[in-house]
Amino acid sequence: MTPIRLEQCADREKDPAEAWHIGGEHLLRCGNTNCAGCGMSLGLQLLNQALGVERPMLAIPACCGIVTAGAFPNSAYGAPVAATTFASSAAVASGLVTIERLNGQDTPVICWAGDGGTYDIGLATLSAAAERNEDLIYICYDNEIYGNTGGQRSSATPEGITTTTSPFGKGERKKDIMGIMAAHAIPYAATLSVAHRDDFLRKVRTARRMHGFRFLLMLSPCPTGWKSEAEESVDLVRHAVGCGLFPLYEVYDGVRYRINVRPDGTPLEEYAARQRRYTGSQVNLKHIRERIAEQWHRLDALALAFPAAAGNDCAHD
Amino acid sequence: MPRVLVTGNQAAGRTLAMAGEANRTARGCCAGAYPITPQTEIIEYLSAHSFSKGRVVPVESEHSAMGVCIGASLAGARSFTASSANGLSYMTENVFAAGYYRLPIVLLAVNRTLGPPWNIWVDQGDSLALRDAAWMQFYTDSHQDLVDTILLAFRVAEDRRILLPALVALDGFVISHTQMVVDLPTQEQVDAYLPPCHVPHRLHTGRPMTFGGLTWPRETAHMRHEIQEAMLRVPEVLTEAIDEFEKLFGRRPVGALETCETTDASTIMVACNTMARTLRNLVKHRRERGERLGMIRVKLFRPFPRQEMRDATATAQRVGVLDRNHSPGSGGIFWQEVAASLRGRSDLLLQDYVVGLGGGDVTEDCLSGIADDLSSRSAEAEPVWEEVAL
Questions:
Q1: Which whole number is the average pLDDT over A165-179?
Q2: What residues make up the domain containing A32?
Q3: Across the interface, do A72 and B73 touch by the CB < 8 Å criterion?
């Protein structure tokens, strides 16, 4: 596929209403460099759908998400993008949104960052932007590795998984980034599944209607890193939700919880057996099942003790 | 124009605030703010200032302070921040990014020794470590020079022919924490002097372009060359900015170099910042004794004014460079630049003096000793390390 050239983009500016029509110009355009089965591609498509004709400004750090754009002067993003330094997406986005708002513009400013830029190198910047309650939507597409550099461990890599920098299986647990973000008492934090389209769209639209810092965490299959088949990416996420490994839930103001999808009894093996990162590792499935049970025990307790009121997602309209 | 008694930091803070306020008719202003000694007072002043269309963002690090400036500038605003020493080092990655993005950000660098060891006093090593970052660099020698240079920096940085960020350096404590009477401009004057900031490549939802994404070697080299071409235009644009400044404010700030008694000088000493002020006194006293000593203050370090340096040293047989900085394994950084400028002068004795590192007090006596050493030399040597009393 030939990337769309900038000159062509310029022509399209003449008729923005048509240019940005759903099904016409897309947030993720032809010619993007993503791999087949990339969860991040699926996420961008759903993000595009959720935003409708509205165009955001994107701040994307050094990660697969910026490689997506292709090479200068082309850009596969149907929105303006600031390619930031690795740790800086939330800081650059803070500057962008500050000026947009000072000029009376309600442009959605979205950080689109991987787990390396979120859990690891960008955590201080993210934490500070959240603490300042900047009017941003921060979306982390979490593929649980440094995918762009060929699959190294991050603090989002699950326990036991073999990566090039944890060749004997990672000894440590995956960081609970949702817990960390909830502890910032931001207006909204939620998890996203590309296998649960309606839930995904509703959460992005909920985030869009609100103001202040909104954090969305998306599990993002990476066939090259997970050693999985490209056509199974959506199924993998469905299984991750179904077996309870990746809970779909929302947290309002860091204190009110709502669980969106409960585990449906899918065996963990359905998820793990289709990824050679699990099968080739020192992963103890019994141990993971215990962790899943712990996680749900805690989440259920929180949702019971501090429930989000029905219709809470519209309270900030 | 109000004449006020202010510290260097207060003067810088007030001037930055007025420059930011002056952009209220355009996209407004934004500063990232993070404290570090001896710069802190600048961001304190900005944080307390009430902008009609601006915001100071209290970030968690210098890296993010520049990140916020980059974002604001990419959104079309006038943006600025300040830092020192290890703060500048921590900021470095985004300092380079700002330059390569061609964003007209102004950064106040209150010079302080990089640690370890922990040392809060003046040394130009912190800002000189950023010399390759596609930023203009100005080194100021007084409170008034600081105020005027900040305004010049915005004007030149935002000029469509330049579009490069500018670093304005001042000596930590010697300027930042001492008070002098300064002619501070009024808001009306700054409004008149600084046109609305226009960042032509700012992000716009009607223009889906990616800034800073993957670029092939040929295009990257081309972008770097464009930066060099913009750098070469700085002297001309700076002179225009100074002409305009003079019309409006009635005084003429120093441009790339300041020369003193160089036209017939056989020996010339080169310095920057407040060391140059002390050096000026030495030149005056030596001239009274009939010595043909002159001095050059380097104010513009990037782009380095090579031609001006050649012109100013045309009559000299000996040039001594005073460096309050050091590049281990080489020598003083100003010396390297002067040597590159005078590389065709085989008749010239060029000697480097590393002096006042870590904030040692460079007195006129100290400089006098260096002048004697310079005049007694028969050949160049490796950079001389000069001890100071404190």
A1: 94
A2: 6-314
A3: no
